[in-house]
Design goal:
Shape: globular
CATH architecture: 2-Layer Sandwich
CATH topology: Alpha-D-Glucose-1,6-Bisphosphate, Chain A, domain 4
Number of domains: 1
Helix content: 10-25%
Number of strands: 7
Strand content: 35-45%
Number of helices: 2
């Protein structure tokens, strides 16, 4: 499954990048990310002791009517181009093979503001299917509005 979304924000690229560079901030604006807490890199296998590759324990949650689906994963920031792009990839510590989860984001200046494009790639079957893709897509649309509101509120 591959989902792509974009938004325009009334701020400079570095300000917008600050909201997407750290997964700990995602629960504030992206409803799919229920929780994201930093992980000590020493606990990962193999250990990733690199300040440019921080890791987070992430709980994703989506609601379909009265039912909710959730998924916990460890995500590592694998790419970071300051104020431009970031990529987070799944990195589990249990020795088993897992489905690919990749979240990428790119920020660019547009006029007096910025444009954000995000791509979510999921290589498994749990979250696929027409209904779930529509739920994820709807939540992404709501997240856009929350992020733009948060940017405006922090600028006051």
């Amino acid at each position: 499954m591959e989902l792509t979304a974009d938004l325009s924000a009334p701020c400079a690229p570095d300000e917008l990048f600050g909201w997407i560079d750290d997964l700990s901030r995602y629960p504030l604006w992206m409803g799919l990310v229920h929780r994201a807490t930093p992980v000590d890199q020493q606990q990962l296998a193999p250990p990733l002791v690199d300040p440019d590759r921080p890791a987070w324990d992430v709980e994703l949650r989506a609601r379909v009517g009265p039912l909710a689906r959730s998924k916990r994963l460890t995500m590592v920031r694998t790419v970071r181009e300051l104020n431009s792009s970031v990529v987070f990839d799944r990195h589990e510590n249990d020795g088993r093979k897992h489905s690919v989860w990749r979240l990428g984001a790119r920020v660019e200046a547009v006029g007096t503001g910025s444009r954000l494009e995000m791509q979510l790639h999921y290589g498994g079957s749990l979250w696929t299917g027409g209904l779930m893709e529509r739920v994820l897509s709807d939540e992404i649309k709501r997240s856009r509005d929350r992020l733009v509101r948060l940017i405006a509120e922090t600028r006051l």
